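[audit] Reproducing an earlier prediction to check determinism. Same input, same settings, fresh worker. If the tokens differ from the archived copy the diff job will pick it up downstream; this log only records the rerun itself.
[audit] input (64 residues):
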Amino acid sequence: MQASVGDRLLIHGRIVGQHDRTAEVIEVLGANGTPPYRVRFDDGHETLMSPGPDTVVRHFGTGE
């Protein structure tokens, strides 16, 4: 997985009834765009994250 500052991560809910969440990448701490990432969720919460297989990168400005 590779991401850049400004990209958004879409984290799919893992259990029935759990909604998908999105977070903006605000800092890339790994080499060449690899995790971990410092992210900010829509509610303002910030955390360090090493995304798992339930996460998709939406690259900024590409419409992906």
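[audit] rerun output stored. Observation attached for the diff report: The chain is about 0% helix and 40% strand.
[audit] end
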